[in-house]
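HOLO CASE FILE
Compound: zinc ion
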Amino acid sequence: MSYLLQNGTAILHDVNERVRIIKTDILIDGNRISKIGEDITAPASATVIDCTDKIISPGFVDTHHHVWQTQLKGRHADQTPSGNLTAKLFTAEDVFWGQLGGCLEMINGGTTTVADYAHVNISPEHNYNAVSATAASGMRSVFGYCFNPRLSSTNPMTIDPNGFGGHAVPTFDELAKQSPWADGRVKLGLAWDGFVFAPKEYVDMLMAKVDEYKIDLIQTHISWKPGKPSWPQALERLGVLSSKFLMAHSNMTKVDADLYRKYDVHYSSTPSTEMQVALAFPVIAFRDDLGVKDLGSLGVDCHTTNAAYLPGEARIGLQSARGARAQVAETRGKVPLTVGFSVEEAFNLATIRGAHAMKMEYQIGSIAEGKLADLVTFDANSPAMVCAGVHDPVAAIVLHSSPADIDTVIVDGVIRKRDGKLMTVELDGSAKEVTGRSSLEWAHVATNLMRTRHRIQGEAEKLDYEDGQKKVMQAFGISESDLEDPE
Ligand SMILES: [Zn+2]
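Model generated. Tokens follow.
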């Protein structure tokens, strides 16, 4: 397919990755941007999309997200560590719907690429269904297969610390054989928090597989408390730290930051969950006192507790960083002269910096000839964006927009949202088997999310969450004496 986006206001990046706004046409040929320029003549095969009064943005790149969790939305609003371990309550079918719902929420909000941290290694089918739902949704994804500890029983909650038992390794091998999926749009990655705690033979075994399977993205969460233990320092001691790592969360010491710099390790700041779950104050990705500002990116983390809308996370991160900076001045009895950080920096974290974090900067993250066609158009004249959209399109997106302002989303050259509505999801192979259908409208997805949520909710009510939260913290090396409730 070929599309000509005509007469839009496009947000481009120059060679220094500074934003450049131009009035232009954009021609998409197959899954690539083939031409950018004024008055492009539409090829006979091209469908013309009028982009007058539209802002054309690169698709957003979400560098840390547990995509399967949709049926748990709302459950963890007032809690610290949210319910990743409750994957145990999900059947393989539940995971299909949760994953599809998660991907479609992201696409609706203009996210076109995600680093998925998939805590769904309950059975092989849980993983296969997650991959198949991702492929069906149209999302570009690195599916981070997960060896994390699992719940071995739910009541009382007991955690099996060894995520390598049973099907775990054979399923990883099988997925590696299958990867990539959907013409390369979805590919396998590794997601594991065990580097610091697990026996060395597991680390060696996994790293050998990473090499053998040519996996180029390894995701890991870092500790709640900086330095207790320090993930980057432990990874260096193990001799495995490399630019393949993508660290979830922005809490770090200067020593950690120096290691990120030395090994070109990128990190994902997830402002909403970092502040809710006390992981970090998401300011590192803005200010440069640790010298790793350019290694930062943004993630949604848990759409159980916040919207899967990356410009929203950019906004929260930006304003938190401005607030923290103002507080520094205030402690000296001063008032800040400027706001310090720009909407452009926030926008770049959600786009081109995310592409760098995923080692995909030559393919995605900005609008350029030859790059993959992952594009989002916003209605510059919407009630939320009007005037701002003309004055400063980047400010309009970062500070004023919501998913309701997004008119069109294109991923890999395929339209996934048009005229403000998600397109029909076409299904084949195993997705067809799971759902018994060959296509799905959003209403079908919502009905099935509600149906499966009802059953999961019944099971979840039997859980002792307070006990579970303590066990999750223990799994990350946090003891009771580390905890307190501040004013
Ligand atoms: Zn996470």
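CASE NOTES: Residues 384 and 401 are 6 Å apart (CA to CA). The first helix runs from residue 92 to 108.
CLOSED: yes
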